[in-house]
Design a protein that fits this description.
By secondary structure, this protein is an alpha/beta fold. Helices cover about 30% and strands about 20% of the residues. The protein has an eight-stranded parallel β-sheet with strand order 3-2-4-1-5-6-7-8, sandwiched between helices.
Length: about 220
């Protein structure tokens, strides 16, 4: 995939967008790019990119997050440091946006700057095995709600279909028709098919745009 300076990961709850954001930031860093990862999830305090802050720092990746990250407070507060994402254009920015349309609202204040620069990719993370979006039509509805909430268009789709610890190669392969239909309905391209690195021998040559990932440690 062709990297944009700003990459946003959006999606429904449980789609795994946070894992993708963390892994994509590491991917960019591995290419020698200066990277900042912004945790914009003001909705879910339990499983977020801040959980990987130490690992990301070791890779030279700066992390930004709400002062309420990893607390039980649900407060729409964003630090002033987030504006640095748009002031310092020598860095690649990865934005982990909150789940569904409610989480995407927090992005709104930054949309004018994103549009003005016009060097962004907003990736909708799809999980064909998520109970809340059992059909591609359901996933498309969530996508449109997110676009309406943040006033920014989704530009590509990532297949991150999984069943948590029970995910195997067949889990990923079984999702291909779902994601293909979602791409047809939305008119958007598939940009990556994500799967845990241990499944790479079984999947790398069998899925479009393979993107092996390391699972983020869970926060309780």
């Amino acid at each position: 995939m062709q990297e944009k300076r700003i990459t946003l990961f959006v999606g429904h709850y449980g789609s795994g967008k946070t894992n993708l954001a963390v892994n994509y930031a590491a991917h960019l860093s591995g290419q020698g790019k200066r990277v900042v990862l912004a945790d914009m999830d003001i909705v879910n305090p339990y499983f977020r990119s801040k959980d990987s802050e130490e690992e990301l720092r070791a890779l030279g990746i700066q992390t930004l997050s709400s002062p309420y990250a990893n607390t039980n407070l649900d407060a729409p507060a964003m630090p002033a440091s987030f504006y640095g994402i748009f002031e310092h254009k020598d860095r690649f920015a990865v934005l982990d946006v909150g789940g569904d349309d409610r989480g995407a609202v927090a992005l709104g204040r930054y949309v004018p700057m994103i549009r003005e620069e016009n060097d962004f990719e907003m990736i909708f993370v799809a999980n064909a095995h998520r109970a809340l979006t059992p059909t591609p039509e359901d996933a498309l509805e969530v996508m449109r709600e997110i676009e309406l909430a943040c006033k920014l268009p989704v530009t590509a789709i990532a297949n991150n279909s999984h069943l948590g610890e029970f995910t195997d190669a067949e889990t990923v392969l079984a999702s291909e028709s779902y994601v293909q239909r979602l791409c047809e309905l939305s008119g958007l391209p598939l940009i990556m098919t994500a799967f845990e690195k241990k499944l790479a021998p079984d999947l790398t040559d069998r899925v479009p745009h393979p993107f092996p990932i390391t699972l983020q440690k869970k926060y309780y």
